[in-house]
Write a structure and sequence with these properties.
mainly beta; single chain; 2 domains; 6-stranded mixed beta sheet; elongated; 4-stranded mixed beta sheet; 16 strands; 12% helix
Length: 291
């Protein structure tokens, strides 16, 4: 009697960034399905972050008949189902089995458009369904499968944690490393388990979301000649300088879409992300536009 080999999804991780998915001030979540599909069609997380399994994880994937698949929206891990079916992996997945993936920043402008503290660039983020033993009890878990709980600076490892992970995960020099994704078959909470009490894969497969918030900045317009500003305008003089105008509030940076800002009757351009300037004295971040 012939048996067909069937692979099923063990877990899925979506890597979603609002800089690419939002349109100006229009949030991805508020878009119609058609518009969301259009935004996702132009989106590829592989151009932003590179996700690579450690050598140890490659061996574990091979030894447990697991397959890793990357896609534009993240990656999935698949298991070979046992002949009897019923979501039973062909190779037992121990409760303490874990898979580790190193995350590298590919886009050199990543920190410009991502809402993270600039001074923390180069530190190591730890994204897992279990808290590492080097961290405090309130260290966050990767337990929200939606875009409303973005990755923030609370996920950064302590100095001891970074040292331990760099040694154990085989990071060579730490160049451009953003962090670590580590998933255990059993998480710290029941809703984070990838397999059930019988060792079967959860159904539907567990989904995790690495959501990144786009940065919002004050927009600074630098003119070659003096400007007149009226109370109804969207900008103010910076320190009384008639050649430098700044927005009254912060505005989001996005790849697509447009935010209308007017100076008298003239509509002003939106900034790119190649030039942002933090002001240490005011703790504000500016996007500069030369007019």
């Amino acid at each position: 009697m012939a048996f067909s080999i069937q692979y099923k999804q063990l877990f899925r991780i979506d890597i979603l960034h609002r800089f690419f998915l939002n349109k100006g001030s229009v949030m991805f979540d508020s878009m119609s399905e058609t518009e969301q599909h259009r935004q996702l069609k132009e989106y590829d997380s592989r151009l932003i972050l590179d996700v690579v399994p450690t050598a140890e994880t490659v061996a574990r994937l091979n030894g447990h008949s697991l397959l890793l698949r990357r896609s534009s929206t993240g990656f999935t891990v698949w298991y070979k189902e046992a002949p009897e079916g019923h979501n039973q992996p062909s190779v037992t997945l121990d409760d303490h089995l874990y898979l580790t993936f190193l995350v590298r920043v590919k886009d050199p402008l990543f920190y410009n458009y991502t809402e993270l503290i600039l001074e923390n660039a180069g530190k190591l983020f730890y994204l897992s369904n279990r808290k590492p033993d080097t961290e405090i009890s309130s260290f966050p878990l990767l337990d929200k499968a939606d875009m409303d709980h973005p990755v923030d600076d609370k996920f950064i490892l302590s100095a001891d944690g970074m040292k331990k992970e760099k040694l154990s995960s085989g990071m060579n020099g730490g160049v451009n490393y953003f962090g670590i994704i580590r998933l255990f078959m059993k998480g710290d909470k029941n809703n984070l388990h990838i397999t059930d009490t019988q060792g079967k894969a959860a159904y539907p497969a567990k989904k995790f979301v690495l959501s990144f918030k786009n940065r919002s900045t004050f927009w600074r317009y630098i003119f070659s000649s003096p400007q007149q500003v009226k109370p109804a305008d969207d900008l103010l003089l910076e320190n009384g300088n008639t050649r430098i105008l700044v927005t009254k509030t912060i505005h989001p940076l996005t790849r697509s879409g447009f935010i209308s800002l007017k100076l008298d009757k003239d509509e002003l351009p939106n900034p790119g992300v190649s030039m942002i300037k933090p002001d240490q004295s005011t703790h504000k971040i500016f996007s500069e536009i030369y007019m």
